[in-house]
Amino acid sequence: MRGQLAVVEAWLAAVDRADVGAATALSAPDLEVVGPRGSVRGREVLGPWTARAGLRTTPLRWFCGAGGAVVVEQDATWADTSTGAVRGRAVVASRFTVADGVVTAVQRHDDGLPAALAGAGLTAGDEVTARGAADSAGR
Which domain holds residue 35? Predict the structure, then answer.
């Protein structure tokens, strides 16, 4: 499970720095992206999305389970991409599915961590509290 955490961590870092090439390489061709405005498929959506979103996130908590399920609670900030002015800030949770070393699905849960965990089939017991401990436990 450690590998799926590394994939999500690298994917989030690529999105934060608007590195579309890196985010695309870490995404399945039929990536599903679900957000408050609906759902789209295809990793080609990453370029336009990162160009307009101005999203920066700081992971707060990590959860990992079977079947490639990863949930990350994040402090998210949206900024105007032309001026850098902050447009919004919230604590959100993102649910990921990882398979074969790439993100196959990502869904932002504005309704919070409990909904993201439930959607992923995870519980508070699946929290990864320390990367070193996760490595030795196989997570």
Answer: 2-128
18 φ, ψ (degrees, to nearest 5): 55, 35
Q: Is residue 133 part of a domain?
A: no
How many structural domains compose the chain? 1
Residue 36 corresponds to which tokens in the numbers above? 């408050």
* Residue 99, number of CB atoms within 10 A of its CB: 13
CATH number for the domain harbouring residue 31? 3.10.450.50
Q: What are the b/e assignments for 62-97, b being 16+ CB within 10 Å?
A: bbbbeebbbbbbbebbbbeeeeeeeeeeeebbbbbb
pTM attached to this predicted model: 0.87
pLDDT tens, residue by residue, 101-121:
999 999 999 888 999 999 999
